[in-house]
Amino acid sequence: MQNLTKDTKIQMNKLCVMGILRKADIKITRQRVHLAGILFNLPQGHFTAEELHDETKQGNLKVSLATVYNTLKHFSQNGIIKTLQVDSHKTFFDRNTDHHYHIKSNNIIEDISAEDVNVELSPTKIPRGKKIKSIDLIINLCDE
Known about the structure:
Layout: H1 14-23, H2 30-39, E1 46-47, H3 49-56, H4 65-77, E2 82-85, E3 91-94, E4 100-105, E5 108-113, E6 138-140
Parallel strand pairs: 4-6
Antiparallel strand pairs: 1-3, 2-3, 4-5
């Protein structure tokens, strides 16, 4: 596993991370601050819990994989990251919480602007009393 934060400039310090957690009304704990500090300083925006867990091993705070999963779920529920269920085998997490879609190729996920995709849904397909909250779209690519 590659070190995702190696040779990258630290973009967000501990105080900024704590501010993000407070703004999202997330209780500040040492482990949450540590994990959020790593994930907000990763060079790419899409990552798995396992990749984040591997990054924790570089520091001096021991965090279990279960704690990483639980923390990421909590962060997602509070809107500071998004959960991407790419397929039945792998869940990715995304720092970009703005409305956008994804393209997946060779296990690499990239953002694509919502304006670049035209999604049409017949109004008759939406049950009465319901409205569209969001549309999650992952375009899976393969070699020709």
